[in-house]
Amino acid sequence: MRGFTLLELIISIGLLVIIGSIVVLNLAGFRSQRELELATENLVAYLRDAQSRAISQQASSKWGVHFDAAVNDNDSYSIFSGNDYATGSVQNKIFLPLSLKFSDPAEGTTKDIIFSKVSGATSPAVVKLALSGNESSFFTININANGVIDYAK
């Protein structure tokens, strides 16, 4: 007789289901990591944009980025012109996806990074962007006193 027994078919299908589940779970993790990486790159681009606007003295003003680590809402960051966020003019506000959050600034706090006109210098600062359900997976964005912006995992 040729063919497969019912037991062989059940074992084969079971193995395929297990392998398929592992692949799907790994793809979900990869997607989350990629979303974190893209959000970090966008945030760095916004910081560099604010710095560029300050150096070119656009609107004859300092420029900065305000970070808001909300308690019960999406975290966000805003690009603004002026001496500080409270009295400045907000140009654009970006909300992070629910799957991401700031771990620095801490939940319920804010942070401002303000770039000086002409030089683009600022006070040294660190911003950390993490996965909401897994804070061990994060990117750290460093801004030094000379205004150099870099990031690392």
Fold and architecture overview:
The chain has a single domain (6-152), classed as minor pseudopilin epsh domain (minor pseudopilin epsh fold, 3-Layer(bab) Sandwich). It is α+β, with helices and mostly antiparallel strands and 153 residues long. A four-stranded antiparallel sheet has the order 3-2-1-5, covered by helices on one side. The termini are far apart. The model has no long low-confidence stretch (mean pLDDT 91). It is built from one helix and eight strands; from the N terminus they run αββββββββ. The chain is elongated, with a radius of gyration of 23 Å. A hairpin with a 5-residue loop joins strand 7 (134-143) and strand 8.
Task: Summarize the topology.
Blueprint: H1 6-55, E1 63-68, E2 76-81, E3 89-95, E4 100-104, E5 110-115, E6 125-131, E7 134-143, E8 149-152
Antiparallel strand pairs: 1-2, 1-5, 2-3, 4-6, 6-7, 7-8
Q: State mean pLDDT (0 to 100 scale).
A: 91
How many structural domains can be distinguished in the coordinates? Answer: 1
CATH superfamily: minor pseudopilin epsh domain
Structural class: alpha+beta
**Order of strands in the sheet with most strands:** 3-2-1-5
Ends apart, CA distance between termini: 59 Å
Taken from the alpha-carbon principal axes, the silhouette is elongated
How many β-strand runs? 8
CATH topology: minor pseudopilin epsh fold
Can you tell me the residue ranges where pLDDT is under 50 for at least 5 consecutive residues?
Answer: none
The proportion of strand residues reads: 25-35%
Treating each run of at least 4 consecutive H or I residues as one helix, how many helices? 1
Q: Name the CATH class.
A: Alpha Beta
Share of residues in helices = 25-40%
CATH architecture verdict: 3-Layer(bab) Sandwich
Q: Main sheet, how many strands, which sense, barrel?
A: 4 strands, antiparallel
* H/E topology pattern: HEEEEEEEE
Radius of gyration, rounded? 23 Å
